[in-house]
User: Fold Endoplasmic reticulum-Golgi intermediate compartment protein 3 from Sesamum indicum.
Amino acid sequence: MEKVYNKLRNLDAYPKINEDFSSRTASGGVITLVSSIVIALLFLSEFRLYLHTVTDTKLVVDTSRGGKLRINFDVTFPAIPCTLLSLDTMDISGERHLDIKHDIFKKRIDSHGNVIEVRQEGIGAPKIERPLQRHGGRLEHNETYCGSCYGAETSDDDCCNSCEEVREAYRKRGWGLTNTDLIDQCKREGFVQKVKEEVGEGCNIHGSLEVNKVAGNFHFAPGRSFHQNAHLLDLLALQTENYNISHKINKLSFGDSIPGIVNPLDGVQWVQENPNGVYQYFTKVVPTIYTNIRGHTIESNQFSVTEHYKSSEVDFRSPPGVFFFYDLSPIKVTFAEAHTPFLHFLTHICAIVGGIFTVAGIVDSFIYHGQKAIRKKSEIGKLR
Assistant:
């Protein structure tokens, strides 16, 4: 047993010095005090880092296919009435949606930005009794309503029961609806009257879109969209002055918001100086996956943007509007929050304590031997 004890004692890497052979100095006390303060400060700093989360960022190739892209927007046009403002989308696959109304809300605003009315598109269309039938007479009791398409019918069974259906029939024909005052459905729904009532007003339009996850664009334009360049004809029938497409983007995001990420177009404002024109935003959408410390995952997107304004003087064929072109990046970004592992924290603390004491010991030894050498020279000088 004694042999084992002696072997263990020989393995001791920390030999002890008898107190009779050790000395304490004032410089050693100062170094010890300073070292203790530095260790305490570094420990608190390391402990704060341990309590906070760290974010691990990775770039991977996006291998997902298909799916939908959700676009959230909130844009204010201070000089375009809500009735004339429409939203259209188009993508490279050829899918097109004109004058979108689903999940779209409009706020009529005056010249000072005050809200006059809030309405959801496609809801609350006015109705009147006894509309005009296709054959020319008024709708009688127990008779099925079938309104005229005013020459745009493609078959004898076609009916246009609303102003929008008449406009859609004209769209398909590639015609412009040049005088809505002559259309019974439009008069009943008060479309022209709405336009006249909203002269001088602006519009805030907000909501969301779901589009195919391919490159495309969505745009806001003053007036209803038509095929075959009939857009301008419709505008000229309702209003002859130039359109001011000044706008402010209160919010634009592709998907849910990600903590800590600020979208580059939020709060951006542009004021038009020349009459008419097209303002274009070109965005590159980057798929992003964010996982917080609790394991909750958000699949969304970030984007970068460049912008360009094209005056109607340069290209008179382009209808006025604000266009957002988007393209998808093949690279996906992943953010994952995590705590620093406890063993890493413990390792850092040991490194701090050991490093400070080692450096302090070297400094103390240097000072001690310097003082000792000075005292020795002083004693030799006295003996002489």
Summary: The chain has a mean pLDDT of 80. DSSP finds seven helices and 14 strands in the chain. The two ends are 58 Å apart (CA to CA). Residues 170 and 366 are 96 Å apart (CA to CA).
